[in-house]
Design brief:
about 190 residues, alpha/beta, 6-stranded mixed β-sheet, about 15% strand, globular, binds zinc ion
């Protein structure tokens, strides 16, 4: 989704939290680097589930109070639903669980930079923070193409951290597309 095939070409510049981008005072970030990497690893695990069923591997977990409150992966092919991105599914599940559309104090961990739809949904949900793995130069809407999470014209802004386990997230996507290309080249039996 979201032009992700090109991600691996540029994502290597965002391969560690040390080089991660902080769009808000990092002192205000209560979570540790270890926590961010632990939760991103969970998002990557969700991406693996997607990959196993032929979906582009994008995974997401939502965290509140140090606990995962929902987790999801891209299901666009299986559902034939253009909105079935990992973040959208995770947001819906968290809202049901919390019985509120306001997901205050929630951090979203997602392997790929959110697209405009998901970035908009994250604003609507009032999440506190978004952490993503690798950039999406063709559709990323929180840094690459747009800056939806920081736009002062909108009524909510969230803290942003980019590049957490970015190499692993990028490799997951590039590995998926390499496998798709390999299967296309296989002769029919
Ligand atoms: Zn999206």
């Amino acid at each position: 989704m979201c032009g992700v095939e090109s991600v691996q070409r540029r994502a290597s510049s965002l391969d560690s939290r040390r080089r991660a981008l902080h769009r808000k005072d990092p002192v205000s970030t209560s979570s540790s680097i270890a926590d961010d990497e632990r939760f991103m690893a969970e998002a990557i695990a969700e991406g693996e589930v997607a990959s196993a069923v032929g979906e582009i591997p994008v995974g997401c977990v939502l965290v509140a109070g140090g606990q995962i409150i929902s987790r999801a992966h891209n299901l666009r092919e299986r559902t034939q639903d253009p909105t079935a991105h990992a973040e959208m599914i995770a947001l819906r599940a968290a809202a049901v669980r919390l019985r509120s559309w306001r997901l205050l104090d929630v951090t979203c961990y997602v392997t790929l930079e959110p697209c405009p739809m998901c970035a908009g949904a994250l604003v609507h949900a009032r999440v506190a923070r978004v952490v993503y793995g690798c950039d999406d130069p063709k559709a990323g809407a929180v840094r690459s193409l747009f800056d939806i999470g920081q736009d002062p014209r909108l009524n909510h802004r969230f803290e942003l951290t980019a590049g957490v386990l970015g190499d692993a997230c990028s490799r997951q996507l590039s590995g998926f597309f390499a496998e798709v290309r390999r299967k296309r080249r296989e002769p029919l039996l």
